[in-house]
Write a structure and sequence with these properties.
Elements: H1 6-14, H2 21-38, H3 42-47, E1 53-56, H4 63-74, E2 78-82, H5 97-118, H6 120-135, H7 145-164, E3 171-175, H8 190-206, E4 212-216, H9 217-232, H10 235-249, E5 251-255, H11 273-286, E6 289-292, E7 295-298, E8 303-308, H12 320-323, E9 328-331, H13 337-345, H14 351-360, E10 365-368, H15 370-386, H16 393-402, H17 404-408, E11 417-420, H18 422-434, H19 436-442
Helix pairs in contact: 1-2, 5-10, 6-7, 6-9, 13-15, 15-16, 15-18
């Protein structure tokens, strides 16, 4: 899906995010530009840097969702971090380089999952063979051809029974090889991470006698899956591919960037590290080399998407050098009543679809009348206006309160259809929404 046109990218996003057309178009163009760059000569590719994006808008209007859906669609490494949790070098806390290490770790996890899907058949065969070896003892040497033919038939039958799950409850004793997993603590420098890995390997060697375990075949399948994955998939090739993908196509979503902006009018010196974080962040966004335990990664072509509400500050309060590294700026609009209604009904796997599916597990056929959906959207919009505007997240709180009683007593409605009407919505939520004091605590 890496060669999608901007129009196709926007169409994909429309299935999950309602409105915000300007933001979708800007990000679609930025992603398409990355694809165009990869078609150029290597020399020219090095000169073209990503057009980083600054998204401005209140919480719950779709900033994170747009970025997350894009990364999933493009199958590129993606992480979301909060700018407010980083500190200037010299202060206690996480340094900004750790976000790049987090991106590499996310890239490795993504590629490992893809490789496991690619080798799914081989992994399954490895697991079944190991289990069948324990269930069917090997034939003694020199057995007749008749016995060998019978033995092969028995093996085939046992493999089918193991695969079908028929034998899942049977207990077997099996040796599980210790699988060394690399630590992903990106808060530590690479040298300390390597020291931790050495200690882990040492304890692994000391605990070899604990490898033999009596477990059910169902548990053995899960334990052997890890072992099979480590044996069949080359970790070094995964690490190299992960570095390349993170370097060439990774996306870092930097949320709450407004929290590290310092207004020129502000005389407060309570948090002098805010501007320091911006200055530490600058070389990462501009392009630098970061050392990870998997190797060195250049950040020149990582796409940074920064986001913030900017209620108490404005983008111009960021240091000029950092402002200049986010040339694409989009402002996301507050969600209207009509948009909230569309979010309830038009998005793929919408909230109403989710609640219907959850109660269907209990045998309850939950239905919402059209006027009830209108009422939910109207009350959610009203609650956003009367209290803090939290965007689409208000729908979660409204629906949880609305369906609380039905969810609690679901067993009593099993096998029945329960229809939510507008009268029911206003009965449950009307007073709460109209009373701003109650809304602050309940919705």
């Amino acid at each position: 899906m890496n060669n999608l046109t901007p129009q196709e990218i926007v169409q994909y996003l429309d299935r999950y995010i309602i409105g915000q057309d300007s933001a979708k178009r800007s990000i679609a163009v930025a992603l398409r530009t990355r694809h165009r760059r990869k078609q150029l000569s290597r020399e020219l590719q090095e000169e073209i840097t990503p057009k980083n994006i600054l998204m401005i808008g209140s919480t719950g209007v779709g900033k994170t969702e747009i970025s997350r859906r894009l990364a999933k669609m493009m199958s590129v490494p993606f992480i979301k971090v909060e700018a407010s949790k980083y500190t200037e070098v010299g202060f206690v806390g996480r340094d900004v380089e750790s976000m790049v290490r987090d991106l590499v770790t996310a890239s490795i996890s993504m590629i490992r999952e893809q490789k496991e899907e690619q080798f799914a058949k081989e992994i399954e065969n490895y697991i079944v063979n190991r289990i069948v070896e324990k269930l069917v003892p090997p034939l003694p040497s020199g057995s007749s051809e008749e016995k060998q033919a019978s033995y092969q038939k028995l093996l085939k039958s046992m493999e089918e029974r193991v695969l079908s799950g028929e034998m899942d409850d049977k207990i077997i004793e099996i040796e599980i090889q210790k699988v060394h997993f690399e630590l992903a603590d990106s808060t530590l420098p690479p040298e300390m991470q390597k020291a931790q890995e050495s200690i882990t390997r040492l304890f692994t060697q000391l605990n070899k006698e604990e490898n033999k375990r009596s477990v059910s075949i169902k548990e053995a399948k899960d334990l052997l899956r890890l072992e099979a994955s480590s044996k069949l998939i080359d970790s070094s090739s995964i690490n190299a591919e992960a570095l390349r993908r993170a370097e060439d196509g990774g996306i870092i979503f930097l949320d709450e960037i407004d929290k590290i902006a310092v207004s020129a009018k502000s005389s407060s010196r309570n948090d002098p590290s805010k501007e320091g974080v911006q200055r530490d962040l600058l070389p990462i966004v501009e392009g630098s080399s970061v050392t990870t335990k998997y190797g060195v990664i250049k950040t020149d072509h990582i796409l940074f998407i920064a986001a913030g509400a900017f209620h108490l500050s404005k983008p111009s309060d960021l240091i000029p050098e950092l402002q200049g590294r986010f040339p694409i700026r989009v402002e996301l609009e507050p969600l209207s009543e009509e948009v909230l209604r569309s979010i309830l009904t038009q998005t793929k796997n919408s909230l109403l679809t989710q609640y219907k599916a959850l109660l269907a597990v209990e045998g309850v056929d939950l239905e919402f009348s059209e006027d009830a959906i209108d009422a939910i959207a109207r009350l959610a919009h009203l609650a956003n206006q009367n209290t803090e505007d939290i965007g689409a997240r208000r729908l979660h709180t409204v629906l949880e309160k609305l369906l609380e009683e039905i969810s609690f007593e679901a067993s009593e409605y099993s096998g029945k259809t329960y229809t939510i009407s507008a009268e029911y919505v206003y009965c449950k939520l009307g007073e709460v929404v109209s009373n701003s004091d109650l809304s602050r605590y309940i919705l």
